[in-house]
Amino acid sequence: MISRVENITEEQLEKIRVLVGEAFVTNELFHNWGSAKERREDVMKYMALYVDYVYQAGELYANEDLSGFIGLEDSGNAKKLPQIRMLFRMLTAIRFSRLKSLVHFAGQISKSNEKYAKNRHIDALMVCVDKKHQGKGVANELIEYAKNMSVELGIPLLFDTDMKEYAEMYQHFGCELYNTVTADNGVTRYSLCYK
């Protein structure tokens, strides 16, 4: 069963930060930050701040044993203060040159999902499954939860990923790949929708 993550200890939150950070070290989003080894420290910091934002905004969901997580943001009810806090903390925690390259990349791909993002929708902010639990249906459970939320609210569910294999996984789960955009660093953004 999937439910909102609330009232957890700092120790539990730190475990989530590490799990999510480890999952994103090899993500193409951070392609410009060097090899996985070179970027590991900054990716771990970045994703820890991102997890804090998603949790503080009340948009972090997990299965019962906290081995799988999904961030789900209703664009009509997006919380701005946690996002502002995250951005400020990133400016003080991560090298400016790395943030600058990420912003440059993000600017090139920012309109990849505008077909659906113009109207109210649910953004899948992240999907992450503990490596020890992959291949056991956890991702399916998380995505089915998100799809049900989309149906209940009557708004589309959007996934954006920079990893081809994740785009293929979302398609397997019934999402439509409706756009791809490749930035000048060679990284492709895949935009998918469930409606």
Question: How would you characterize this protein structure?
Answer:
The structure is a single chain. A hairpin with a 5-residue loop joins strand 2 and strand 3. The chain has a single domain (3-194), classed as Gcn5-related N-acetyltransferase (GNAT) (Aminopeptidase, 3-Layer(aba) Sandwich), CATH 3.40.630.30. The protein has helices spanning 10-24, 36-56, 80-93, 96-109, 114-117, 138-153, 164-172, and strands at residues 3-4, 60-62, 68-74, 122-129, 157-161, 176-182, 188-194. The protein is an alpha+beta fold. It has seven helices and seven strands, in the order βααββαααβαβαββ. A seven-stranded mixed beta sheet has the order 1-2-3-4-5-7-6, sandwiched between helices. The model has no long low-confidence stretch (mean pLDDT 93).
Topology:
Blueprint: E1 3-4, H1 10-24, H2 36-56, E2 60-62, E3 68-74, H3 80-93, H4 96-109, H5 114-117, E4 122-129, H6 138-153, E5 157-161, H7 164-172, E6 176-182, E7 188-194
Helix pairs in contact: 1-2, 2-3
CATH fold group: Aminopeptidase
Shape: globular
The number of helical runs is: 7
Low-confidence stretches: none
How would a textbook summarize the main sheet?
7 strands, mixed
Helix residue percentage? 40-55%
CATH class: Alpha Beta
Overall pLDDT metric: 93
Question: H/E order of the elements?
Answer: EHHEEHHHEHEHEE
Whole-number total of structural domains: 1
Q: Regarding quaternary structure, how should these chains be classified?
A: single chain
Rg over C-alpha atoms, rounded to the nearest angstrom: 16 Å
Work out the number of β strands: 7
Strand content: 15-25%
How are the strands of the biggest sheet laid out side by side?
1-2-3-4-5-7-6
Q: In CATH terms, what is the architecture? A: 3-Layer(aba) Sandwich
Note the gap between the termini: 22 Å
